[in-house]
Amino acid sequence: MSLNELWGYLVLGVVLGCLYAVIAIGYTLVYGVLQLLNFAHSEVFMFGGFGGVLALTAWTPVVNPSGMQSVLYVAFGMAAGAALGAAVAYGLEKVAYRPLRKHNAPRLVFLITAIGASFFLYNLAGKLFDRSSVAMPQMYSNETVFTLFDTDIKTTHLLIVFSAVAMMVGLDYVVNRTKLGSGIRAVAQDPEVASLMGVNIDKVVSRTFVIGGLLGGAAGFLFGVNSKVVYTMGFLPGITAFAAAVLGGIGNVRGAMLGGLLLGVVETMTVFFWGDDWRYVAGFAVLVLVLMFRPTGLLGERLGRTA
Amino acid sequence: MSNQTMNAQAAKRLRQVRWYQEPRWQRLGGLLALALLLAMVTGVQGTNSDPFYAIKENLTGVGLWVYVGIALLIWVAREFFSEPVKQAGATAKQAKGTLVDGPLGQIKQLLAGQPRLRWALMAAVAALAVWGPMGLDRYWQTVLVDQVMIFVLVAIGLNVVIGWAGMLDLGFIAFFAIGAYSAAYWTGALPVAPPIELNNFAVIPLAVITCLVAGLLLGAPTLRLRGDYLAIVTLGFHEIVYLTAKNLNDVTGGTSGVKVDRWEIGGYEFRIVDQMPFYWVLLAFAAITVFLFVRLEHSKVGRAWTAVREDEIAAASTGVDTVRYKLMAFAIGASTSGLAGVAYASKVGYINSENFVILLSILVLAYVIFGGMGSLPGVIFGAAFLVWLPEFLRDYVDPKDRHMYLGALLVIMMIYRPQGVIPSKRRQRELKMAETGSAEAEAEATGTGGKHS
Prior knowledge:
The complex is a heterodimer of chains A (307) and B (453).
Chain A: H1 3-34, H2 41-58, H3 67-103, H4 107-128, E1 134-135, E2 144-148, E3 151-154, H5 155-177, H6 179-189, H7 191-196, H8 201-224, E4 228-229, H9 235-248, H10 253-274, H11 281-293, H12 303-306
Antiparallel strand pairs in A: 1-4, 2-3
Helix pairs in contact in A: 1-5, 1-6, 1-8, 1-9, 1-10, 2-3, 2-4, 2-8, 2-9, 3-4, 3-8, 5-6, 5-8, 6-8, 9-10, 9-11, 10-11
Chain B: H1 3-15, H2 23-42, H3 53-60, H4 62-80, H5 82-98, H6 102-112, H7 115-131, H8 138-164, H9 172-186, H10 200-222, H11 227-247, H12 249-252, E1 258-259, E2 264-265, E3 268-269, H13 276-297, H14 300-310, H15 312-317, H16 322-348, E4 350-351, H17 358-371, H18 376-393, H19 402-416, H20 425-436, H21 439-445
Antiparallel strand pairs in B: 1-4, 2-3
Helix pairs in contact in B: 2-4, 8-13, 8-16, 8-17, 8-18, 9-10, 9-11, 9-16, 10-16, 14-16, 17-18, 17-19, 20-21
């Protein structure tokens, strides 16, 4: 338990936190427009990992790829993961949530549908991919790039942090500067008035799910890089990311990013101090504490007003 | 070009519908996608060596063509022959309108005038419930006791929380686990010794009180939250209880589990060779619980729960102490689950942490929803049926897939019949109001707390 070890865990925490932040954005966006806790988002994340595996099985990387080849493989895998994630999220909205919106169903009904969909999706993935972990093909050699206070910073760490930051910056731009973004914010603020102003709510909701799915799928791929993908991998990161979204203030995109980073660090610190067994307890404990003392999260709640 | 013509052109572009945007073709696309999904769902199991295996097999298999064929048939029938179908439907509806609420309603009417017949029927049903299972073979008796009765009890408890008070509890099995582990603790089965060892029956009040307190402890800080936060916090609570049971090996026995003594009363030992005594004990538990809960449902407390569920703000402003009643529902539900936990530990005689995975919490939720939340007969039927169904389908469907079908069932139920198989009248009315969008429905649509809190 040296200080250097602690530093190592901190670095890991930031890397993990970046992933949580990207997943949390998916929860927060959907919550913003529909006031719905999209329970099945963790499955979108999981399918993203499988999308990467499928793509890289179809186009197997060579044994010792050159730099350019590695970049291509990673980009291809991530694109496939994001595409599958987006497809799942789109289908989910279309099949499960849209009919309920048309019925003007109570919130409880939405939530139960989300749980059912999550249950269905992850068992479907289990069926299609044999309920065991599938190794992600090696796309590059995971070497130490540089050393920071005796902690090796490896290629994977950099890959995750850079892609996550790029995605977050891109998303922030989309939400705050584009027409679609102002549509999303308008629907989040007041769906009825937004539709009177000419916003096509169905389209905006659908695209919000697609954006969340793209990010979630890419995060799923990054999660599986250099390790394995398994059909149950969505649940715990999903819950932790949701906790992150609540911590930052649900519906608030920047809050989700901040919350994700914080929770990643809290989680690895828990591992450092109490051991791996209690890893996921940290997220839940933080969630309960936040809800008790500051239910609107760190940065306040609504997408429309604050993002 | 003048401004006006430009505007007109823009408007024209907006109104123009490309061929694939027509509803007809979109429906075709949807049906074909559904066929593809069905082929995947019912297709072969994947292999570990090749992630593409299952997808390839399903895309080239016969199943896909059957589903695509059916999808095309449905589409053609709907697009080109919908008029006669609609007319037939209308006449059927007219014919139905002359009947009195279907067969069940007729039986009810018949019985309404004849109290003796009603009593006789009830006695017959009770006798069947008590002695009927003797005729089953051993396997089904075990299923009945170990699973059906236990989960009926759990589902009745969850119904209080979700069906009557309208709070979504995703961690209900946590209380079941607490009940089971209290039973193990007080009978001296755990590695840590209790102050005094008790009989399994004597444990029941202790376990129920423990769960009650656990329910209060969890509920007190969280019940002021909105519905979906509550759901996630209860889920977290479940996970914490599960991880504690799993990781604290010196206290709970962890994944390797502990052996619990079976029931024993006044020198009579319950033995695993004969399932019926266990069944009768559980039946008695269930009967007492149902009796108490029926009384509760129509009491002041039950009405307060309904008020809280339908519109929390209105309830609070008319003087209902919402937090108190929500806590009460939580605690009562938790203690029922704890009772089931004791029964489970004392029946099966062995518990480990893997008996209490999150999956079970979701399954119990599915039972309650399927049967019809808020309706006791519905919940009992839902739990019994959905526990029985996978056992029954064991030979026809790959047992590993059954949870997938259950998830699909939940979604389909929520879309087409959110009130459940045997709905409670009130719940049905609430959902209908939400759909037609009356003033009361407005409040219901935003759920417990909703936008206002």
